[in-house]
Amino acid sequence: MCQVLGVSESGYYRYKNNLGRPSKDEALSAMMKEILSESPYNDNYGIERVQLALEQRGRHVGRRRVRRLMKENGWLHDPPKRPKGLTQVDKETQESENLIKQDFSATEPYKKLLTDITQTPCIDGKLYISPIMDCFNGEVISLCMDNNMRKELAIDTLNSAAFRFPLRGAILHSDRGSQYTSDAFREEMKKLGVIQSMSGVAHCYDNSRMESFFATLKKELLYRIPTYRMKMSEVKTIIFRYVFIYYNKQRVYTTNPGGWPPVVYRQMAGTEVAA
Description:
Distance between the termini: 70 Å
Largest sheet: 6 strands, mixed
């Protein structure tokens, strides 16, 4: 039979033994599907995050192969749109210097922080979302929400972070919104020993890493649920769970070495701080 088919005997038996077994691509696709199914938010993973998640499981696969299999299985999607800024520049108060100059890296936790405010519509009004992110590992170390975006929201966010983490000497970067240029906010920063840094006027990229977080939050969560038909209290709970359970502790974070989630990377780096 081998002579008739024009194949070697060893090749024939290798083919016969492999009948019914999944191909390498099928096995890899099954692993990728498992990764994407681990959390309802993981279906937003792109090529890089899937590749990193595979590496964390001991499978080193080329980017082109990951892309091909994701395309074949219908798992590719468009990149997120960058949301427009929300806070308004206070043109009369612009003394604070831009200390980070678009360098969003940090060699230690709690030394270089970012903050801003975004919003989502709810049935009982607009919900304003105010986080603080650590440049060291991308961890959201504080998150406050309210039905307004007055200076008290920014102050509460700062105090929440300072209560849980050692912030004295840290740089906190924001845009030049009136919340951050207010005397009350600056006085609170001074009391906590936090140094203020601010974006240039109309320089949206000066806080692009924070804007990137908002784009992720909206694409992976807020644009997928009808917040406009939900109460603020419901949306708050969903956002808290997403940020502190999924984003900080489970989601593949491409900026960190190995793609490790923010809290996992901080713990691996030996910089654990009780929260």
